[in-house]
Amino acid sequence: MKPSGIGGQAVLEGVMMRNGGKYAVAVRKPDGEIAVDVKEQEPLGGQGIRKIPLVRGVVNFVDSLVVGMTTLNYSASFYEDEETRESGSLSKAETGLTVALAIVLAVGIFMVLPFFLSRLLNRFITSDTVLTLIEGVIRICLLLGYIGAISKMKDIHRVFMYHGAEHKSINCIENGLPLTVENVRKQSRRHRRCGTSFILIIVVLSVIFFMFIRVDKLWLRLIIRLLLVPVIAAVAYEFIRFAGRSDSKIVQILSEPGMWLQGMTTREPDDSMIEVAIASVEAVFDWKAFLAGEDAAEEADEEGASAAVAEETAGDAAVLAAPAEEDADEGISEEAVIAAEEDDAAVEEDDEPFDLAAAERMMDEDAEEMSQTFGKFFASHRNDASGKSRR
Fold it and tell me: Is the pLDDT assigned to residue 98 strictly greater than 50?
């Protein structure tokens, strides 16, 4: 899976997709048409701060809340009554106030409340570590209970369906498939970079971080916890960012709890919702160029692998051809080599194996012949000498 770099969120009867400093909100209007609103917005803090680890996590979190509130307000405007619609959309100040209020409520419910509830067990449990673990369990139970409760609401249930359409659309692109309703429908509705996983990681990390708070005063423990919330969010963001780009088995295992929780915050969308998600993606992202670039990269990898195989095969052929090349370098023709081989074979056929006994017999015969020759020579000289003496 190749990361596309786009992200988004579900809104009321629609989907928001963001790509860098550009985002689009696609909403299914009451008359059935799809309204798409595209806006440019420079990320909070500029591009420079986005390159600083941990700091970028806090900035992105706040930025996402601001954009999320703005897009939710836009999508809700299509389903307001006339009186509410005439009052207009929220101003930047009102949006900022809404975001601040949302953060305060979230921190109060999921950070402060579990702390005080766990302290009710002080009479029975004296270990701070155990109390911190209980605090974490209470926090997770509150989160699961909250998600389960709001999912029963009809409007939120449909938002969760659009949430599924958002994930499926991104998964379709990142799996290298054309962005069609048929292809999107087959995709998983879970994604590693989801905000649901981000929230769960914050809850889990808070248990680990809070274990190291060793102060006696209750109010100081609470303040330190609140001050650590941005740090925990920053670490959670770095993990989500890394998990979205890694295929490591360890990362997959660590991502499983968040993927499981997405089963509660996403639902299977219908085709009309998938069409809205596709419209939102196409407004900010050229998925055809993305897939073309991915195909080119795959072809390059295949060509590289083929070239490597061809090079290895050519190397083997060169080794096998080395003797023939040496013959050619020496100017020996193939016919001459064959003729020489035939001559060697003929010589080998004419050669008889060496027989030691036959050789000894031949030497004895030669010695006897030489002995007879010398015997005749000395006999003739004795006869001549005796004849001269008689005279």
Answer: yes
Annotated domain spans of the chain: 7-285, 315-349, 352-391
Report how far residue 163's alpha carbon sits from residue 167's, in angstroms, rounded to the nearest whole number. 6
Q: What is the mean pLDDT of residues 351-360?
A: 47
State the average pLDDT over residues 316-345.
Answer: 42
The residue with greater pLDDT, 361 or 354, is: 361
Decide: 214 and 128 in contact? Cβ < 8 Å. Answer: yes
Choice among 46-50, 217-221, 351-355 with the minimum mean pLDDT: 351-355
**How large is the average pLDDT for residues 167-189?**
95
Average pLDDT across the chain, whole number: 77
Q: Quote the tokens at residue 10.
A: 């579900």
| Residue located via tokens 């970028």 | 56
Dihedral, CA of residue 221, residue 226, residue 232 and residue 237, to nearest 10: 170
- Among 7, 17, 67, which Cα is nearest to 42's? 67
> Alpha-carbon distance 111 to 133, whole Å?
13
How many Å apart are CA 82 and CA 329, to the nearest integer?
96
pLDDT at 331: 42
pLDDT band at 319 (very low <50, low <70, confident <90, very high): very low
